């Protein structure tokens, strides 16, 4: 694509570096900004830079935060006997949106993936071990592994189980099965098979 | 969605103001920027602001430009007996990409749409009339209307035909028909019907 303006071309190229945004979409977004007030572009640019330069990571759970401790870790009403281990902040948000979980989190910052060259040392696993070993954290009773049911997720879960065994805690994983509202007919065999194996007795 | 950080929330809200980007996608983009170097976010912000504040519109055809005249209008090798009227810069880029057109353009900056409150006076129609009336522009022989085949596009085309009639120029529109590679079976009736009415004789 040949652009009529170098300024447009540079902006399009930068926007197209974002994941899932191609040149055509980038151009649409850039032209949209041109139709809006200059102020909107300025605000967009300022908030992005402020976010990138000022945002912190919670020193305890590595969740995104404005302060040294995130709002979840700093909240005394959260159940600190539970730690839910997730891949990234998006998973924290997804679980928080369910309003079903009142414990704490630990954000790994990724998942073990030999293909992408991500090993256990690249993730916040050591800090989880330290967190469990710390004197003031003796109240933790259960670790919930909420990782994606992919090969990488299962590998990470397996590694964590081995690593956390010495603490003699209850270690669980989120339930796998047929999604609520899902049709049996359209479920894949692996999920359906697993959902029969891990069937839940009526109480 | 409740965000763990006000900085993240503000950035997500600003990104989600862009067309076709919802909160979830905005969050994905923001988290992506967090994983990349600070420099990338800074460059993105800088190029967007530079684009928004410095880009000009061609004084002749209203296309986006770095200078007073766009590269197309300033190019002496373009055929200045042809002016192709389009809705916006994206259409110029699309037509340029075909490499089939060597004339000039006139960018209306929109399309007549009573629903969205866009009337003829909001578009660069008067400047087209002035362009055709100017002494140094007597060489224009044909106006090609390349507008979308929607109700708004047809309305705009009809208005332009009426407005340009006094100049006694050839006025044409781009061909409507079955797209190359398109299957007759899946073409809508209106397009198929029109393609029969405006059939092209083999020479």
Automatic annotation (TrEMBL), chains A, B:
Zinc finger (C4-type) in chain: 58-73
CDD domains referenced in this protein's UniProt entry, alphabetically: TOPRIM_recR (cd01025)
Keywords carried by this UniProt record: DNA damage, DNA recombination, DNA repair, Metal-binding, Zinc, Zinc-finger
SUPFAM superfamilies given in the database record: Recombination protein RecR
InterPro entries in the record: DNA_Rcmb_RecR (IPR000093), Rcmb_RecR (IPR023627), Rcmb_RecR_Znf (IPR015967), TOPRIM_dom (IPR006171), TOPRIM_RecR (IPR034137)
Domain Toprim residues, every copy: 81-179
Cross-referenced PROSITE patterns: RECR (PS01300), TOPRIM (PS50880)
Record family assignment: Belongs to the RecR family.
UniProt function note: May play a role in DNA repair. It seems to be involved in an RecBC-independent recombinational process of DNA repair. It may act with RecF and RecO.
Protein's recorded name: Recombination protein RecR
Origin species: Nibrella saemangeumensis
